[in-house]
Design a protein that fits this description.
Layout lengths: L5 H12 L9 H6 L4 E6 L7 E5 L2 H13 L3 H8 L3 E3 L11 H9 L4 E9 L2 E10 L7 H29 L15 H15 L3 H15 L3 H9 L13
Helix pairs in contact: 1-6, 3-5, 6-8, 7-8, 7-9, 8-9
């Protein structure tokens, strides 16, 4: 188990900012925090439930237990919208996920820390940090993990949408009436979403794509509705 300093966190964040579609998203957590394993999963709508990254076979198994049972710290983190910190799993007591607690204990897992991923109002999933022995995270370390998880959430959502768009032969260029709409409208819609939600430019485009995916529409169609004022993201968990 590593005990990295603050320099490791800065380097890990830099690596994540530069990460491409095929780069490992788990390694930066291992380089920054006193844990042994990491798993990243999407949970529920709109992306479905699956493990999208695991640092090793043990992390994949601990994640699989929670996905199979439909309960566990990762699910609680997403439901609460806040980290779930269990520094000593073997002595933990919870009524929120008793089946997962029993199954995870049976593997001799020592600690688990689950951090919810979201981009704006879009729930993405969770990052789980695992310790083979019990271990506590200082409040400043938890804050760093929250920051890193936020960046990873953007990567996970982007990758999921790219896979979907490629499978559908490119949302940018398909959909009824696609010839009527231009990329300029997509960027204009993204700017309007940024003004309505306070999100940055990159996150606004992600939100546009994610809501289009959820609604089963093309990005171009939804962008046209945003520009025309038929869809407004202001103060809504989902566009009307």
């Amino acid at each position: 188990m590593s005990r990295p300093d603050g320099t490791g966190f800065v380097a890990a964040m830099t690596a994540l900012y530069r990460a491409g579609e095929q780069d490992d998203l788990c390694a930066p957590f291992l380089a920054s925090f006193p844990v042994d394993s990491v798993a990243i999963s999407t949970l529920g709508d709109p992306l479905g439930s699956e493990t999208v990254g695991a640092s090793d076979d043990s992390a994949a198994r601990w994640d699989e237990i929670q996905l199979d049972l439909g309960e566990g710290p990762c699910w609680e983190a997403v439901d609460r919208g806040a980290p779930v910190l269990v520094p000593d799993l073997q002595d933990a007591e919870t009524v929120r996920w008793p089946l997962a607690l029993h199954a995870l204990r049976a593997t001799q897992l020592g600690a688990v820390f689950a951090f919810p991923m979201h981009v704006g109002p879009i729930p993405v999933g969770a990052v789980d940090l695992y310790g083979r022995a019990s271990v506590s995270l200082r409040p400043s370390v938890v804050e760093d993990a929250v920051i890193m998880t936020g960046l990873v959430a953007r990567h996970v959502l982007h990758r999921a949408l790219v896979r979907t768009e490629r499978a559908e032969e490119g949302t940018w260029n398909t959909g009824s009436g696609s010839g009527r709409f231009s990329r300029r409208e997509v960027h204009q819609a993204s700017g309007m979403i940024a003004a309505q939600t306070g999100a940055g430019a990159a996150d606004s485009l992600l939100l546009l794509r994610a809501f289009a995916h959820t609604a089963g529409r093309s990005v171009l169609e939804l962008a046209a509705d945003v520009v025309a004022g038929r869809v407004d993201f202001t103060d809504h968990g989902e566009p009307e």
